[in-house]
Write a structure and sequence with these properties.
- It is a single chain.
- The protein contains ten helices and twelve strands.
- The chain is α+β, with helices and mostly antiparallel strands and about 350 residues long.
- The longest helix is centred in the C-terminal third of the chain and has 34 residues.
- Its main location: cytoplasm.
């Protein structure tokens, strides 16, 4: 089993390259002021950036750096389209603004309004980064995990109350959180000792639906394996569980069944909170990833089997070259009438 990384690898690499470019540019400017010969061939002037890309669950990114302000980086994020049962405040999940300020501090400024077509635009001042390389890298990894910070903000708020064994105030009985375009999963935070998470599993392809159903049944059974007793209890059912009573009909339609997790305070203590938030936020993508891997593995096995059968059929065919050679060795020569009489008399 493979768990998805919380940070965007392309975004992290872009940030690291940009910070390195800024540091080299600053060193070059200082060297010019001090009249120090430039002995570093890798020094380059600041370059303009304008990158667009899309990652899983239709999360879009846009990174932009202008030549006028090479130390300023604009990061825009577009979130999945929320279904009607979810609640967005200003185009963002509740608690997202506070989570961003708490995670990034003074180096990040939230632009209001964001760029057109995006839910969030962050302004990063790279000149305010710490000179400590290890701390700077950890902060850039956190910036590259902006998806987790924003989409996981409501879940983080609820689970923090669970860690303190209290109930979050002013929270509905059933909370819908977006995790895919027009799809959501649900939380029931009405008990101080546990929080129930329910995932309606939907797949467009019929083969993916069959594979996902089998995968989820095995996933639930693996909970009984020795060493996994401390993992959250997991249930799978083909029909909607009773916890989803009152949800919309669209939310209750799932062709691959429903998966239910029960989260206890021990699952969100200390550093476990971040991992639990990310795993719950990307559970559907995790299942979809392994379903596609299983499908690709089956196709590979089928192709290898077909190739072995074709080789067996080719070995069963008679050798045409040997047959032709044998036919040539048995050729006959036509004799004239005089030669035939001579051979008969002899």
């Amino acid at each position: 089993m493979i768990l998805l990384q919380s940070h965007s690898r392309f975004l992290l690499q872009t940030l690291l390259n940009r910070v390195q470019n800024v540091l080299l540019t600053s060193y070059f400017e200082l060297a010019v002021l001090l009249s120090i010969p430039n002995r570093c061939p890798s020094l380059e002037k600041s370059v303009e950036l304008d990158y667009h890309w899309v990652e899983f669950d239709d999360v879009r990114y846009h990174v932009q750096v202008s030549m006028k302000n090479p130390h300023i980086l604009l990061l825009s994020v577009s979130l999945p389209t929320p279904p009607r049962e979810t609640f967005f405040l200003g185009g963002l999940p509740f608690g997202a603004i506070e989570a961003i300020k708490s995670a990034y501090g003074v180096i990040v400024q939230i632009l209001d309004p964001p760029r057109d077509g995006f839910n969030l635009t962050l302004k990063l001042n790279l000149s305010k980064l710490s000179p400590d390389e290890e701390y700077r890298h950890a902060l850039l990894v956190k910036v590259a995990s902006v998806r987790e910070v924003v989409l996981g903000a409501p879940l983080r708020v609820i689970l923090k109350y669970l860690a303190s064994r209290t109930i979050a105030p002013d929270i509905d009985r059933l909370v819908a959180l977006v995790h895919r375009p027009n799809e959501s999963f649900f939380l029931l935070p009405q008990q101080a000792e546990k929080v129930t998470a329910v995932f309606p599993m939907r797949f467009k392809d019929s083969i993916d639906t069959v594979l996902a159903t089998s995968f989820l049944q095995e996933f639930v059974e693996s909970r009984r394996t020795a060493g996994l007793h401390n993992a959250p209890p997991c249930l799978w059912s083909h029909s909607p569980p009773l916890e989803l009573k009152g949800a919309t009909d669209d939310a209750l339609s799932a062709n691959a069944g429903f998966v239910t997790f029960v989260i206890f305070p021990r699952h969100v203590e200390g550093k476990k909170l971040d991992r639990t938030v990310w795993n719950l936020s990307t559970f559907h993508a995790y299942v979809n990833y392994h379903v596609k891997c299983s499908e690709g593995f089956m196709h590979t096995r089928m192709r290898r089997r077909v190739e072995s059968l074709i080789q067996a059929l080719n070995r069963a065919k008679p050798d045409q070259e040997k047959t032709k050679k044998a036919a040539h060795t048995r050729s006959f020569k036509r004799l004239s009438l005089k030669e035939s009489r001579t051979n008969s008399n002899s």
